[in-house]
Specification:
heterodimer, A: mainly alpha, B: mainly alpha, about 75% helix, elongated
Chain lengths: ~90, ~120
């Protein structure tokens, strides 16, 4: 029964990731796109944890941890690049 | 099918997390402004991922994997609002117009020009 919840949650989150990708394509300004990509990354972390629980391969949690770190670095780097025009 | 009480609590928490991600995506699509959209995505970061991974922690019990999941929750709770704040600040400094149109966009950018 918990398998049904995990699979339904993972599929729902993947559909929501594609909806966010629509905002990232359409979005009128650059910070719109960065916010949409940040939310896609957060949902990818959740999907990785759901897949780790559904398949029993618990090393996917390590992948989710590293993905969360890289997602934060991406957001900070893009925000600084938008604001100042360079990363220096 | 029979479920234990721990699995029922875990399923309720995971469903709540997915629901808050749904609310966050609706806000990202429907709200008219970058500042309101950033506000909606910060809710998805904290509440959605927090509830979903807390459900995973309840399902796993006391293991090292649940300790890693608590580490992910703590890290996202620190960095998610920080990233939303930085994105909103970069939109404000670069002069992205608001929906209501009465935000003084060039107000706080003077301190940047002196440095």
């Amino acid at each position: 029964m918990i398998q049904t919840v995990l699979h339904a949650g993972a599929y729902t989150l993947i559909v929501l990731m594609f909806v966010c990708l629509g905002r990232a394509v359409v979005g009128p300004s650059v910070p719109d796109r960065v916010a949409a990509i940040n939310l896609i990354g957060t949902k990818a972390v959740t999907v990785l944890v759901f897949v780790a629980l559904a398949t029993g391969q618990l090393f996917f949690v390590d992948v989710a941890l590293v993905y969360a770190l890289v997602n934060f670095l991406t957001s900070v780097g893009m925000a600084k690049y938008i604001e100042k025009g360079s990363l220096g | 099918m029979l479920m234990t009480l721990r699995e029922i609590i875990a399923a309720i928490l995971m469903t709540g997390g997915v629901f808050f991600f749904l609310v966050s995506v609706i806000g990202l699509i429907r709200l008219p402004d970058i500042y309101m959209r950033v506000h909606a995505t910060a809710k998805g970061d904290t509440l959605g991922l927090g509830l979903a991974l807390l459900g995973a922690v309840v399902y796993l019990g006391f293991t090292y994997t649940s300790l890693k999941l608590l580490l992910i929750i703590t890290f996202i709770w620190i960095t998610g609002p920080t990233a939303a704040h930085l994105i909103g600040k970069s939109a404000y400094r670069t002069g992205v117009p608001a929906a209501c149109g009465d935000i003084p966009v060039k107000d706080i950018s003077g301190r940047e020009n002196q440095s």
